[in-house]
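Suppose a colleague, Dr. K., hands you the sequence of a protein chain of 268 amino acids and asks what its three-dimensional shape might be. Before reaching for any lab equipment, you can write down a predicted structure in token form. Begin with the sequence itself:
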Amino acid sequence: MDEPAWPVRIFQVTTITSRKTVRTGTMRGRLQLSIAGHEHTAKTGGRKMDAITCIKERMSIRAFTDKPVPRELLTEIIDTAKWSPSYKNSQPWEVLVLSGEKKEGLSNLLLNLFEQGEEPTPDLTSPTSWPAREQAQIDNLFAMRKEATGIDLADPKIIAVAKKANFKFYKAPHAIYLFQEDSLSSWSLFDLGLFSQSLMLAAHARGLGTVPQAFVTDYALQTKEFLNIPRSKRLVLGLSIGWPDLESPANQLRTERMATEEIITWQE
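The predicted structure, expressed as tokens, is then:
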């Protein structure tokens, strides 16, 4: 079977939905957010949130309302993210936005593959071990989660539940996939990481929630076939995006960060 035709452009935004798009216009006014004791006011029109506040207050959101996000707002967020720096301004990122029946169809595909015991074959393999410094941070996260919720993230049954929630995109109205040419170097992966951070910050500044997801790239080949993405592309990251459900217990735990002194070395 021939590869599907694909626009020859480094920056590509594709929106897939089986339903007719209804344009609701740009939302106005203020949206008050309160997450884990942190409050800020994000304006959905006019001046953006302070950058420092945005960086410090962004968090992964794992419960969303079912209210769709206007396409204009999603486009604005991606348009903002495209100004991220990249090696020689190569801009090695492509974006696919999923909504409606197409998103639900992909969720069903991923869930079926998982329940059938299909072996994951992501384009970027998951690490099997970590250096001691990083492993300590992971252990701390697992301990925090268990203390706060009683959930043991090391339990295989819990991992299975977590994967299924991922494959449902946490019931967010939209999902985003980031990908690039597979022949690109590690520098381009770094560049796409910068792009993804910019995207999440831009979304947060507009009152939206996001969560970066590796699990939704587990079945990369089948996902690319379903979405008509050429095999020559590297499926790097998935994200759920939508209006956060701030009352959900899933959004009450805020992870910690290492002390600044532990990550800086000064030399004069």
